[in-house]
């Protein structure tokens, strides 16, 4: 039961983080909490399915740039999610890069908080 509860809580908190990104940075807009829930799900789905493929395909560029190209991959996935969803909009690549950096930072905080909350005794 705990893994499912952690997953649902992470999804809800990721939606809140997406709303926070829209509040902090004007280049990202989220229409409602429902839109944020769907966008958080799609971003997570893209990160699970597409990101590993893109990382492998761009491995030479990633090595040459000392891993900095991973930021570009994150931004492209963030931007792609806005392209397939209504109620979640990103104003361009630079906005996607900044938005994905803020979203990732908030995701690290969420993961740390949930790791402490659901730590096995």
How does this structure look, described?
The chain is mainly alpha-helical and 121 residues long. It contains 5 helices and 2 strands. A two-stranded antiparallel sheet has the order 1-2. The protein starts with a helix and ends with a helix. The mean pLDDT is 93.
Task: Briefly summarize what is shown.
With 121 residues, this protein is mainly alpha-helical. 79% of the residues lie in helices and 5% in strands.
Question: How are the elements arranged and paired?
Answer:
Layout: H1 2-24, E1 28-30, H2 33-57, H3 59-64, H4 69-84, E2 88-90, H5 93-117
Antiparallel strand pairs: 1-2
Helix pairs in contact: 1-2, 1-5, 2-4, 4-5
Sketch the topology as an H/E string, one letter per element: HEHHHEH
N-C termini distance: 16 Å
Report the count of strand segments.
2
How many H/I helical runs? 5
Largest sheet: 2 strands, antiparallel
Task: Report the C-alpha radius of gyration, rounded.
Answer: 15 Å
Mean pLDDT comes to: 93
Overall, the morphology is globular
Structure keywords:
about 120 residues, mainly alpha, globular
